[in-house]
Amino acid sequence: MYVCSCFGITEQQVREHADTGACTPRQIAGACKAGTDCGSCVRKIQALLGRGGCPRREAPDPVVLTTATTTAATATAVTAASVTAAAEAA
């Protein structure tokens, strides 16, 4: 059965793209254009993909996030101190 009549994409084609790693309607659209014209098939594509087909995005590790934030703040403070010292020397 056709899912996308604009581009003639079938359920089987959507499933094949999903089997090769496309797990969101946007990824399906990138693979075969389904959902990029009138958009009426996007909900059908979502239904075919179901839930849980994609690995969930994990929340960032708080330790890494804290370290990166601290490093960025330190770099900003060092840069500001260098600019101030250069201005005072001039």
TrEMBL record:
<dbReference type="GO" id="GO:0051537">
    <property type="term" value="F:2 iron, 2 sulfur cluster binding"/>
</dbReference>
<keyword id="KW-0408">Iron</keyword>
<keyword id="KW-0813">Transport</keyword>
<keyword id="KW-0249">Electron transport</keyword>
<dbReference type="InterPro" id="IPR052371">
    <property type="entry name" value="BFD-associated_ferredoxin"/>
</dbReference>
<dbReference type="InterPro" id="IPR041854">
    <property type="entry name" value="BFD-like_2Fe2S-bd_dom_sf"/>
</dbReference>
<feature type="domain" description="BFD-like [2Fe-2S]-binding">
    <location>
        <begin position="2"/>
        <end position="50"/>
    </location>
</feature>
<dbReference type="Pfam" id="PF04324">
    <property type="entry name" value="Fer2_BFD"/>
</dbReference>
<keyword id="KW-0411">Iron-sulfur</keyword>
<dbReference type="InterPro" id="IPR007419">
    <property type="entry name" value="BFD-like_2Fe2S-bd_dom"/>
</dbReference>
<keyword id="KW-0001">2Fe-2S</keyword>
<protein>
    <recommendedName>
        <fullName>Bacterioferritin-associated ferredoxin</fullName>
    </recommendedName>
</protein>
<dbReference type="GO" id="GO:0046872">
    <property type="term" value="F:metal ion binding"/>
</dbReference>
<keyword id="KW-0479">Metal-binding</keyword>
<comment type="similarity">
    <text>Belongs to the Bfd family.</text>
</comment>
